[in-house]
Amino acid sequence: MTLMLANDDGVHALGLRTLADALTAIGHEVCVVAPDRDRSGASNSLTLDRPLHPVYLENGFISLNGTPTDCVHLGVNTFFVDRCERVISGINSGANLGDDVLYSGTVAAAMEGRFLAKTPIAVSLTGRTHFATAARVLIELLPKLESLALPTNSIININVPDRLYDDLNGIEVTRLGHRLSSDNPVLTTNPRGKECYWISAAGAAADAGPGTDFYAIEQGRVSITPIQMDMTLHSAIDTLSTQLR
What integer pLDDT is reported at residue 203 of this predicted model? Predict the structure, then answer.
């Protein structure tokens, strides 16, 4: 199978290289387009105010001065037209749990692969060490996902505990949990005395009980969450229609 890989950590990230090497080693052809720098938190943004310039690296990867979504958009529609069957985004350095998926460039890159034949996958490691564990988990899951018939416009979000493979406690299919609001932005000044702000870290887990992705990770299990891109609140349509007549 020919797979397109992308990420939001940047084209030189260890997680991306580990994933590409692991998939190539078992016979997959990989086509890689990734941002030229870390674009974590870019969500589903497209670059519309300037041109995008691909740089072809010696290892065959394409570096792009854009967002993760830009990378997949150009990859499937320009660089590798009709070549790739599935987009895999990652391996991200850090978890994408609960509300993280709203901001995650890793998840967004996978979402942009929704028009291909096979369901896109986003894969994240909850830390920065055991990328080989996450790669092995993905490789073992791929054959099982071949016959999976998820609805169009859905993706699979995988989070892997940052530990040795033999220390994992299995896998669990989960729902998204939820976080508390993050702390307020941090006000500071730059060396020239100009006011500036740092966005604070994500809030702590709030809805993190059994069945959630947070809980699975806490128990040392791989979390596999199906995500849909249809954000319509279908249960409210009839009520709103009646009230707004």
Answer: 84
CATH number of 2-178+205-243: 3.40.605.10, 3.30.70.20, 3.40.1210.10, 3.40.50.720?
A: 3.40.1210.10
What is the model's pLDDT at position 200? 87
Q: Are 152 and 114 in contact (CB under 8 A)?
A: yes
Write the DSSP symbol of residue 142: H
Between CA 67 and CA 136 the distance in angstroms is 27
Instruction: Please answer whether residues 177 and 205 qualify as being in contact, where contact means their C-beta atoms are separated by less than 8 angstroms.
Output: yes
Asked whether the beta carbons of 44 and 111 are under 8 A apart, the reply is: yes
**Dihedral class, residue 192 (left if φ above 0, else alpha if ψ from -120 to 50, else beta):** alpha
Q: What letter would DSSP give residue 76?
A: I
Average pLDDT over residues 17-44: 96
Instruction: Report domain extents, the chain.
Output: 2-178+205-243
Please tell me the distance from the alpha carbon of residue 72 to that of residue 32, in angstroms, as a whole number.
9
Residue whose token pair is 């990420």: 7
Indicate the residue type of 215: Y
Residue 173 has pLDDT above 90, yes or no: yes
**Nearest alpha-carbon partner for 101 in 12, 218, 202, 173:** 202
pTM score, whole prediction: 0.94
Q: For the residues 12-26, what does the mean pLDDT come to?
A: 98
